[in-house]
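Quick entry between incubations.
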Amino acid sequence: MSPLVFSCLFVFLFVLQNTCAEERPTEDGVKAAYLYNFGKFMRHPEADAGKNDICILGRNTIAKVLEDSKSSDKGDAHPIRNYDKAADARNCEIVYMGASESEHIEKDLAALQGSNVLTVSDVPQFLEKGGMIQLLLQNNRIRFAVNLDAVGRTNIQLSSELLKVAVYVNSSARTEDKP
Amino acid sequence: MKTSSRQRSIAARLTWMNVLVIGIALILAYVSFFAYNLIAYREATINSLTGEAQIIGENSVSAILFDDRATAQATLSALSSSRDVDAAAIYTQQNVPFALYARSSTDIIQLRPIPAKLTLAYWTHWESILIGSRIVFQGKQIGIVYIQAHLYGLHVQIVRYAAIAGAILLVCMGVALLVGSIFRRMLAQPIVSISETARMVTRYRDYSLRFSPGESYSEMQLLTVAFNEMLAEIQQRDKALAQSKDKLELRVSERTAELVAANKELEAFSYTVAHDLRGPLDTISGINYIIQHSEEQSRDDRSRQMLGRLGTSITEMTNLIDDLLNLSRSTSIGLHLVQQNIGLLASTILERLAEAEPERQVEITVHKKLLCQCRCGPHAGRHA
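Done. Structure below.
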């Protein structure tokens, strides 16, 4: 095989891979969409009616995806903020805790306690640690579970539609036992 | 024996007319109700399916947004309780199938694009209905739900309506026959009676018969009066005609008698004249014979010729008298007709005239073979 043919084949395969990748959304893309959509199925108390910030704790690639989604979805603008400390995110609508926060999840959750913030994370055993929504990977699909006990400790109300599509809604269940 | 429609009585026709009118009216009513029911049923089904499509769309919002196909599938499966729904599907905004439901493997949805400005559209094809409803969440379309249904209930409706209409039709026709048989006596009996009277009048030529309507309606009374007046008129004319006929016959018989008498008188006169002429003519003939056969040598040619002509005239006179006698008897014994050659007869008459008046120079041409022939007495032609 000549170097020219090999180069052409390589370029073709690269383009094909990129094309296929565009058709199927990335994991971060799906998680970002979920963060946007969670906001559509929750209701804040009247005092927090104006807030709609989506905040990212720690360093996470999802922040960039959220920014890109924001620019492409002009009619559905949610300010995206990135914080290193959970205490700074008490005024956010949704706080996402990425993998970088796995070591101090309990501390972050404690810092947010008492504020009407929906906490979301894909860190294992997030619900058991007091988180509200945990993103899960099931059959190559992103799903989520809800801890209603944690939600109940705030003034946030989640829509039954959201609970309907959750893989389970339980505060005491272990995430490892998910169906 | 089968009776044709023209031979049926008016009463039977009235009864059948009632039954026919009721039957047609009921069938028209059934068709109208059926058409109305078909439209109403179709509209009700469309409304019901539209509602179901919107409910499914509302319940599928979170499933679409969170890519939960199982929940969407479960939502669609609730349509299995809907008898008319064959298949349903939820498509994403990118027109990708998200969840499908089919009652059987042969039920496939034939998708159609919803017009741009509509959130809901439906397409019907006889018993098949396709509903398409956009799934809109917070002002944005996130998918489309399609429901394909079949109006299975329509067959049930048709059979049910046909059964009810058939039963009502039978009952109504039975009632119509019963009521018709009661009322037809009241309506048709006077007509039947008047036709019977007309038949009697026609058969027996008895125009003195009259129809008595009894209790009847004004139309029948008018008809009865007109009928009776017509009979009276016919009777009067018939009577006048009979009188005229009698007068005419009397007059004809009188004239015939007069004619017969005149003929008899004429016959007697002719006979008398002929008989009275025959005597002297026989005498003249005898004398002529004697003169012809006596002293024949002393007579010159002219005298001989004159005597010969006298004999010929006497013979003709005798024939003439015989013919006159025959003519006088002809009224009683009839004419004995023979065929005569007109041409020959005319030539004979012309020769006699030429001999009688030799000084006249008249040129007359008669075809001896004149084929025109007439039927007359043997000597009648010569009297012309």
